[in-house]
Design a protein that fits this description.
With 121 residues, the chain is α+β, with helices and mostly antiparallel strands. It has helices at 4-25, 27-37, 59-66, 100-108; strands at 39-43, 54-58, 71-74, 84-89, 94-98. It contains 4 helices and 5 strands. Strand 4 and strand 5 (94-98) form a beta hairpin.
Length: 121
Amino acid sequence: MEGSSDEREIRAARNQAMFRAVNEKIRALNDTVSDLTGTYSIVCECANSGCIETLEITTEAYAAIRKNPRQFPVLPSHVFPEVERIVDEDERYVVVEKFGEAGEIAQATDPRTEVSEPSPG
């Protein structure tokens, strides 16, 4: 199955980008609640498109993760080591960073940055 590894890597990155976009959309609601709790309740941003689990994260930790478009908060058992590495750990979640083509896709699909067309080659 030629290219199957690349296809999985691309699919995983797109799944995580989709979950990140969902969490960005509900951020306004989370901002309202976080004034009382200091935390956000977000969807796990793992590469599994069928995952619907949630996790609690502090507003500061969420903001720090969002500074790097290749990073995603996921539940500890939801890491895909073939396309990401753990860069930080909390008792409730881990932060993974995409690498390779998956990292490029994650960066290109970040809703918080202006994306320009990639240069050829």
